[in-house]
Each structure stands twice: as C-alpha cells, then as structure tokens.
C-alpha cells in the first residue's frame, strides 16, 4: 500500500495548499526523513509574498530548508555510506556540493557554478519527482548528494533546529565580521539571524551591541540573556545621531552585521562602523534594490562582506549547541512559536510580524494537529 506524506505546497504568491504526496520507494543511494520540526526562515517570507519572480515561476514548491527529523527509510548503499539506520535523528543541509567546480573545491558550495539557479531544499519545484523537496511536510526526500548530519538523541528538536541553521549562520557571519576578544561588534536587527550572530559573537569573546526598534523590546530583552548589550532606536532619531549615541557608550565599532534589510539599517551601518572597519551584509534587502554611499565607503576604507549561508558549519554549530545545552543554556528557546502544517500561512504571517505578537523564531511541527 502506498504511503503518503502531507505537505504544504506553494502554488502562487500568498497561496499555500495542503497536498498528499506519495512517498516513493527508496532507491539504494537515497533516503526519506520524517520531519520532526521545520524552521520558517526570513527568505521564505519574501518568497511567500511573491517578491522573487524567478522563484514564482518554479511553483509548485514545498518550502523549508531548515529540517530536523528521523530516518524514515534508507537504501542499503546510503545506510552503509552514511552510517545511518531507520530511526536515527538527523539534520539536512539546504544545499550540497558538486565536488567538481572551483567554488565547491574551496568549500563554498552555496556558490556552486553547476547550481546557478539555487537548487536545494525549499527551492526545487515539486514537479521534479519525488516532489518532497522541503521541510514544510511530514517527510522529505534526501538524494545521494545531500549533506546529512547526525543529531544527538538528548538534544531537543527545537535546539537542533536552531543550531543547524540560525546558529550555523551566526558562527559563519560573526567569523566574517572578525568577532573575537577585544572586538566590538554591532548587529542591526534582532531577528533570528541577528540573535544568532549575537550569540556567536559573544561566544567568540566580542563585546556585542544589538540594535532594534521599540517594538523589538522582547527580542532585545531575550538576547541580553546571552550576554549582549542592546539599544532601541528612539522614534524620529536620525542614523547620524544614533551612531553618535552608540559610539558615546561603546566606543569605536569594529564591525557591523546588517541583519535587518532596510535602507535605514544600511545608512546606520555606514555611519556607525569605524574607518577601516567591516560591514557584513546578510539580509535579503527590502526593497531588493537600495542605494549605497560609495563615497563614504571609499573615504572610510570600509570592507563590505556578503557571506552566503553557512558552508561546512553545521557540525560545529550542533556541537556548540550540545555543549551549551549540557551546561544549562538551551538555544531552543529561540523558537517561541510553533504551528501545525495546516497553519503554515499563519506561521509566515507571525514571522512577518503581521499580528500583535513579535515572535523570536517560528517553526512548523508536522505532527501537531489543528
């Protein structure tokens, strides 16, 4: 008898459908994972609204590139190669390398020259069999090429989910910013990625300031628990006055991680960072095209870095999250709102702050019932 997965399928901008998709017979090199928890990330908010035309043309698509689950079925060759068995807990990385081009050879497989259209979890059309290419589902397909990592049994699903993407991003991006002892790092935007960068920068020994709006007070209070300082922007305060206020309290800022995506955040970053400092741009901009003061970049000799995702960082992030968990610090607390698949649109709206609440991190639980 054919077994079916239940999936949230993006069919058009602002349109999700719940569909039953057959779980194919597993091939020798493949496997299927039963999803415990799937994350809602910032890029999906833009995708759902139809802001990325190239993405709309791929519909139908199963969203979701943050995935934690258990092996549901696995081919014999895959089991031998991966050292996995049915029931093992795993996380799956969003992209995988071709192992042939210059970028994959250098370790940055998110820039694979053989994957110019960004194929991976949450972006492959469901027209491509076996259709289950995203974590907004009860099951997800795992091809031979995919990067799969074991998750400790004693690590809660929420903690593992935050580790496999948000913390992995934070470790990568704070490293690009040069976070370390004696460094002062400002992070603009206390969303999940900004909080992940703050946690990673604190762990690296940097002094960290997270900057947000008045409506972000709960998030700012949350990140203070991890050792960061915070500052809320006053209503009507210019980016020039705000930069002066920050420097008066914290001194020179060695690097700014811009995790908000809006033009005022970029203006603040340019004003705030010290001469010869670094700006790390990690957010999808809203709107997509925004001006940049290249003259200020030149005369302050600012280094601009735009790292893409977190290549080769997931094992390190899981290990750090596990050590922190054993020492009484659970980053799973980042996940403040969990929804069933049937309420995926509500989850997107919550993560977009369309309601009264301002979640820290949103996830979908395929086993949760309405």
Describe this structure in words.
This protein is an alpha/beta fold and 370 residues long. It folds into 2 domains: 4-156 and 330-364, Quinone Oxidoreductase, Chain A, domain 1 (Alpha-Beta Complex), CATH 3.90.180.10; 170-305, Rossmann fold, CATH 3.40.50. It is 30% helix and 24% strand. It has 12 helices and 16 strands. The chain has helices spanning 42-48, 53-56, 76-82, 102-105, 157-177, 192-203, 217-224, 239-250, 263-272, 294-299, 314-326, 344-351; strands at 4-12, 15-22, 31-40, 61-62, 67-74, 89-92, 139-142, 148-150, 184-188, 207-212, 229-232, 253-258, 273-281, 303-305, 335-339, 361-364. α5 packs across α6 (192-203), α5 (157-177) packs across α11 and α8 packs across α9 (263-272). The radius of gyration is 21 Å and the shape is globular. The model has no long low-confidence stretch (mean pLDDT 95). Keywords: Metal-binding, Oxidoreductase, Zinc. Residues 27-148 form the Alcohol dehydrogenase-like N-terminal domain.
């Amino acid at each position: 008898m054919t077994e079916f997965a239940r999936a949230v399928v993006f069919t058009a901008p602002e349109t999700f459908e719940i569909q039953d998709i057959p779980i194919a017979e597993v091939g020798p090199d493949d496997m299927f994972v039963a999803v415990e928890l799937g994350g809602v990330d910032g890029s999906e908010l833009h995708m759902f609204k139809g802001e990325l035309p190239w993405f709309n043309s791929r519909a139908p698509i199963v969203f979701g590139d943050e995935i934690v689950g258990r092996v549901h079925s696995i081919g014999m060759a895959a089991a031998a190669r991966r050292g996995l068995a049915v029931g093992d807990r795993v996380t799956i990385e969003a992209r995988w390398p071709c192992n042939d081009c210059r970028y994959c050879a250098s370790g940055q497989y998110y820039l694979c020259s053989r994957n110019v259209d960004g194929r991976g979890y949450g972006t492959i059309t469901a027209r491509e069999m076996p259709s289950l290419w995203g974590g907004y589902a009860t099951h997800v397909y795992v091809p031979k090429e995919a990067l799969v990592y074991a998750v400790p049994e004693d690590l809660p699903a929420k903690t593992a989910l935050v580790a496999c993407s948000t913390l992995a991003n934070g470790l990568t991006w704070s490293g690009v910013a040069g976070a370390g002892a004696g460094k002062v790092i400002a992070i603009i935007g206390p969303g999940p990625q900004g909080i992940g960068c703050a946690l990673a920068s604190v762990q690296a020994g940097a002094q960290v300031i997270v900057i947000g709006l008045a409506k972000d007070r709960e998030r700012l209070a949350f990140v203070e628990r991890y050792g960061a300082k915070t500052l809320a922007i006053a209503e009507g305060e210019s980016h020039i006055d705000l930069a002066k206020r920050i420097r008066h309290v914290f001194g020179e800022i060695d690097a700014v991680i811009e995790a908000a995506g809006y033009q005022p955040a970029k203006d603040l970053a340019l004003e705030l960072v010290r001469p010869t400092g670094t700006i790390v741009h990690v957010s999808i901009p809203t709107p997509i095209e925004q001006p940049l003061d290249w003259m200020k970049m030149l005369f302050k000799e600012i280094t601009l870095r735009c790292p893409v995702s977190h290549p080769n960082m997931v094992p390190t992030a899981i290990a750090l999250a596990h050590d922190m968990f054993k020492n009484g610090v659970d980053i799973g607390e980042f996940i403040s709102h969990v929804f069933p698949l049937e309420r995926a649109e509500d989850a997107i709206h919550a993560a977009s702050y369309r309601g009264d609440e301002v979640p820290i991190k949103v996830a979908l639980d395929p086993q949760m019932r309405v």
